[in-house]
């Protein structure tokens, strides 16, 4: 993304899936917006899926595990709560907007060692293990990054079937 070397106004549409989450710093995100501003035509579109800083109360881990075992929540919600919502209190850096996945998965491993997660749950969650440092903004901060560079939000889509859809959206 940051190393795109296309001429000005090259694209009508640019699409990305968590691109801004997967760049480690706010500065990288600001650089990407400048690159997109250059390569997308004036009447062009950016279509992005992005995860926001959740504005939902976390489910205590013991209750979360109980709900998952009783099949009252889906695996994507279980994973989202463990990977993003629960670690925010202690592992999210509010100044840099960063969440280090290595620290999150160490925390998840601790929950397994404490006997809160069983081996099957731990192993299933660890299928999604990575070592990324993700950037998560509030929705207002995310949209603001674009607006201050001349972009205008046209449409926002969010599902409502699952709890994790409250903090993941598609933006045009």
Strand and helix map with partners:
Elements: E1 11-17, H1 19-22, H2 26-39, E2 40-51, H3 61-69, H4 75-85, H5 88-91, E3 98-100, H6 101-113, H7 119-126, E4 133-135, H8 139-147, E5 156-157, E6 168-171
Parallel strand pairs: 1-2
Antiparallel strand pairs: 2-6, 3-4, 5-6
What is this structure, in a nutshell?
This protein is α+β, with helices and mostly antiparallel strands and 172 residues long. The protein contains 8 helices and 6 strands.
Question: Your description of this structure?
Answer:
This protein is α+β, with helices and mostly antiparallel strands and 172 residues long. Helices cover 42% and strands 18% of the residues. It contains eight helices and six strands. The protein has helices at residues 19-22, 26-39, 61-69, 75-85, 88-91, 101-113, 119-126, 139-147; strands spanning 11-17, 40-51, 98-100, 133-135, 156-157, 168-171. Helix 3 (61-69) runs antiparallel to helix 4 (75-85). The protein is elongated. The model has no long low-confidence stretch (mean pLDDT 93).
């Amino acid at each position: 993304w940051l190393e795109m070397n296309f001429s000005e106004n090259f694209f009508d549409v640019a699409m990305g899936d968590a691109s801004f989450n997967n760049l480690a710093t706010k500065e990288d995100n600001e650089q990407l917006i400048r690159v997109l501003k250059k390569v997308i035509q004036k009447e062009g579109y950016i279509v992005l899926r992005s995860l926001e800083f959740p504005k939902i109360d976390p489910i205590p881990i013991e209750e979360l595990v109980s709900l998952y075992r009783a099949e009252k929540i889906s695996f994507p919600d279980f994973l989202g709560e463990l990977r993003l919502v629960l670690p925010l209190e202690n592992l999210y850096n509010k100044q840099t907007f960063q969440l280090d996945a290595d620290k999150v998965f160490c925390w998840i491993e601790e929950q397994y060692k404490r006997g809160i997660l069983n081996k099957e749950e731990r192993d299933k969650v660890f299928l999604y293990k990575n070592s990324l440092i993700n950037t998560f903004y509030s929705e207002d901060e995310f949209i603001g990054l674009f607006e201050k560079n001349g972009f205008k939000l046209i449409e926002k889509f969010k599902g409502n079937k699952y709890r994790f859809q409250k903090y993941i959206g598609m933006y045009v």
